[in-house]
C-alpha cells in the first residue's frame, strides 16, 4: 500500500526541515511506500524555497504553493486532491501531531477503518480557551446535525474511499471538522497527549477562533433559523401575557404611569434580538452568495507535480 501525508504550511520556515526529518524517521521504520504532499498556503517567509529544496532532495515529495494565503481548509483540500495514496494522513507542520502515531494509525487502518482519528488532550492550552471550547461544542452538538467533538481536529488518517467522498463535496465554505463527520464511514478514535508547538507561532487569534465557531454553527443546516422562529414565538407569547396582565391590573387598580424602565428594557432587548436574527439570516444569504460565484477554492502559483490540480479545477 501507499501512504500520502498531506501537510498544510503557512509560515513554517522555522520548523519545516525538522518536521521533514522527524516524519521520515518515523516512516522509515514502517513497511509502507509513502509520499509527502506539502501545501504552501501563501507563506510570506522562506517556506517555499525550503519546500523546493526538499522536493529536489527527495523524489517522494510533492509541493504546491498558493498564490496567496487561502486558509488551512483550502490547503487541506489541495493536498487531498494531489495525494495519490491508498490512505492519506493530514498533519500539521509544527510537530504538534506526533509522527510516532502514524504507525498506530496504519495498524487501525489495516483493521478496516476508513477514518482513524487522533483526539488530542487540551494539555498545555490556556484554561479559558479549553473552557470556552467545551462550552462551544456542547452548544454546537445541540443545534447542529453533525457530531463535532472537542479535541478532534484534522489530524487523522483517511482511506481512499473517505478521501474520494470528501473530494466529492463541492461547497465553497469548507468547515472540514464537520465535513469529516458528515461523510461518516467506519470511524475509530484514539487519544493522544498534545505536544507544544516546536517553533514558529500559532496562526489562531481569538477573533479567528470566534469566526471559526460561527462557521461551525452555520455550515451544516438551517437549524439556527428555526431557533429564531422559536425565540420570536416565545417572545410574542410573553408579550401577549404581559399585555393581558397590564389590562387586568388597570381594570383592578386603575391606570398609573410607572413602567418606564420596563419599556426601555423591552425595546432594547427586542431590538438586540432582531439584530441577531437579521444577522443570522444575512449570514445564510452571504453563504449562498459565495456558493453561487463558484470560484475555485485556491489558486496554485507553483508546483512540482504535473498531477497537481489545474488552477481552475474548482467544483
Ligand atoms: N495553516 C495553514 N494556513 C493558515 C493557517 C494555518 O496552512 O492560514 C497551517 C499551519 O501551517 C499548520 C496548521 O495549519 O501546519 C495548523 O496551524 P496552527 O499550528 O497555527 O494552529 P494550531 O495548532 O494553533 O491550532
Ligand atoms: Mg499548531
TrEMBL record:
<feature type="transmembrane region" description="Helical">
    <location>
        <begin position="260"/>
        <end position="285"/>
    </location>
</feature>
<dbReference type="InterPro" id="IPR029044">
    <property type="entry name" value="Nucleotide-diphossugar_trans"/>
</dbReference>
<dbReference type="Pfam" id="PF00535">
    <property type="entry name" value="Glycos_transf_2"/>
</dbReference>
<comment type="similarity">
    <text>Belongs to the glycosyltransferase 2 family.</text>
</comment>
<keyword id="KW-0812">Transmembrane</keyword>
<feature type="transmembrane region" description="Helical">
    <location>
        <begin position="227"/>
        <end position="248"/>
    </location>
</feature>
<dbReference type="GO" id="GO:0005886">
    <property type="term" value="C:plasma membrane"/>
</dbReference>
<dbReference type="InterPro" id="IPR050256">
    <property type="entry name" value="Glycosyltransferase_2"/>
</dbReference>
<protein>
    <submittedName>
        <fullName>Glycosyltransferase</fullName>
    </submittedName>
</protein>
<keyword id="KW-0472">Membrane</keyword>
<keyword id="KW-0808">Transferase</keyword>
<dbReference type="InterPro" id="IPR001173">
    <property type="entry name" value="Glyco_trans_2-like"/>
</dbReference>
<keyword id="KW-1133">Transmembrane helix</keyword>
<feature type="domain" description="Glycosyltransferase 2-like">
    <location>
        <begin position="4"/>
        <end position="166"/>
    </location>
</feature>
<dbReference type="GO" id="GO:0016740">
    <property type="term" value="F:transferase activity"/>
</dbReference>
Amino acid at each position: 500500500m501507499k501512504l500520502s501525508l498531506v501537510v498544510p504550511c503557512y509560515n513554517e520556515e522555522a520548523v519545516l526541515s525538522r518536521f521533514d526529518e522527524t516524519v521520515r524517521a518515523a516512516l522509515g521504520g514502517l513497511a509502507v511506500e509513502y509520499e509527502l504532499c506539502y501545501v504552501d498556503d501563501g507563506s510570506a517567509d522562506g517556506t517555499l524555497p525550503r519546500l523546493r529544496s526538499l522536493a529536489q532532495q527527495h523524489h517522494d515529495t510533492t509541493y504546491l504553493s498558493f498564490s496567496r494565503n487561502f486558509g488551512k481548509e483550502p490547503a487541506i483540500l489541495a493536498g487531498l486532491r494531489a495525494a495519490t495514496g491508498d490512505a492519506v494522513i493530514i498533519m500539521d507542520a509544527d510537530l504538534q501531531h506526533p509522527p510516532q502515531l502514524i504507525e498506530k494509525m496504519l495498524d487501525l487502518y489495516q483493521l478496516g477503518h476508513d477514518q482513524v482519528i487522533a483526539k488530542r488532550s487540551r494539555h498545555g492550552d490556556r484554561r479559558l480557551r479549553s473552557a470556552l471550547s467545551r462550552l462551544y461544542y456542547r452548544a454546537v452538538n445541540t443545534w447542529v446535525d453533525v457530531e463535532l467533538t472537542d479535541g478532534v481536529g484534522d489530524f487523522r488518517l483517511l482511506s481512499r474511499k473517505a478521501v474520494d467522498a470528501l473530494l466529492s463535496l463541492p461547497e465553497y465554505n469548507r468547515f472540514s471538522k464537520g465535513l469529516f463527520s458528515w461523510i461518516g464511514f467506519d470511524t475509530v478514535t484514539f487519544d493522544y497527549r498534545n505536544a507544544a508547538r516546536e517553533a514558529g507561532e500559532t496562526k489562531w487569534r481569538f477573533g479567528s477562533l470566534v469566526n471559526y465557531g460561527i462557521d461551525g454553527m452555520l455550515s451544516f443546516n438551517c437549524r439556527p433559523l428555526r431557533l429564531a422562529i422559536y425565540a420570536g414565538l416565545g417572545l410574542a407569547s410573553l408579550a401577549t401575557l404581559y399585555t393581558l396582565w397590564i389590562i387586568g391590573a388597570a381594570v383592578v387598580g386603575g391606570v398609573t404611569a410607572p413602567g418606564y424602565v420596563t419599556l426601555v428594557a423591552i425595546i432594547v432587548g427586542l431590538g438586540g434580538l432582531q439584530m441577531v436574527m437579521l444577522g443570522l439570516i444575512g449570514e445564510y444569504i452571504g453563504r449562498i452568495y459565495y456558493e453561487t460565484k463558484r470560484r475555485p477554492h485556491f489558486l496554485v502559483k507553483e508546483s512540482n507535480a504535473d498531477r497537481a490540480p489545474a488552477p481552475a479545477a474548482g467544483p
